[in-house]
Design goal:
This protein is an alpha/beta fold. It has helices at residues 78-87, 89-94, 107-116, 130-135, 173-183, and strands at 33-34, 40-41, 49-54, 97-103, 123-125, 139-142, 145-148, 151-156, 159-164. A hairpin with a 2-residue loop joins β8 and β9 (159-164). The termini are far apart.
Length: 185
């Protein structure tokens, strides 16, 4: 069984391929997304800061990940990233930001992870990729699925203010976001 909380020492680092260069200053699509909290969230309508970490796919302790998952740059690390945002959640809120995670898994799939990891914020499902497609988020193929590349957006008033891409290592992303928020109150 794979330890989903551990990052391997030899994970390949993703490179900045420019796939997110268009995002800064973009208005988010007005597409309500279902959350693991049972609510729909229109991120374009929230006036204050939002931290949205976009991740490929959360593994399950009893599940199997796509072949060669650990060799795909930026693929592995969804659980450590989510746990880091969980552990820094109070600090992120104190910095004036609300937090969401987003993937293309169904809400039912995400609810298992949100409960198992004790996440104090909702995970959002973009299973039909309408939201991410409208924004032009980068994707990759693995195991016959189209998955989102790991990206973190800082949004204010429905507009992308800052982009973290590529995100590596994923378990440091929440601390990097906190440092950016402290430098840009």
């Amino acid at each position: 069984m794979t330890d989903l909380h551990a990052l391997l020492a030899d994970l390949p680092a993703p490179v900045d391929d420019g796939a997110c260069a268009h995002l800064r200053g973009q208005r988010l699509p007005a597409v309500p997304l279902p959350g693991t909290d049972g609510q729909f969230h229109d991120l374009s309508a929230w006036p204050r800061r939002t931290v949205l970490y976009v991740y490929p796919k959360t593994g399950r302790p009893d599940g199997v990940m796509p072949d060669d998952w650990d060799q795909i740059p930026g693929a592995r690390g969804c659980t450590p990233q989510s746990c880091a945002f969980r552990d820094h959640h109070a600090e992120l809120q104190a910095a004036g930001a609300r937090v969401f995670g987003l993937s293309v898994q169904s809400t039912a799939y995400q609810q298992e992870a949100a409960a198992r990891l004790h996440l104090p914020f909702p995970l959002l499902s973009d299973a039909d990729q309408q939201w991410s497609g409208a924004l032009g988020l980068p994707t990759f193929q693995a195991g016959g699925e189209t998955l989102l590349r790991r990206t973190t957006l800082i949004v204010r008033g429905g507009v992308v203010e800052h982009v973290f891409y590529p995100v590596f290592p994923p378990d440091r992303n929440a601390a990097d976001v906190l440092a950016w928020l402290a430098a840009h109150p």
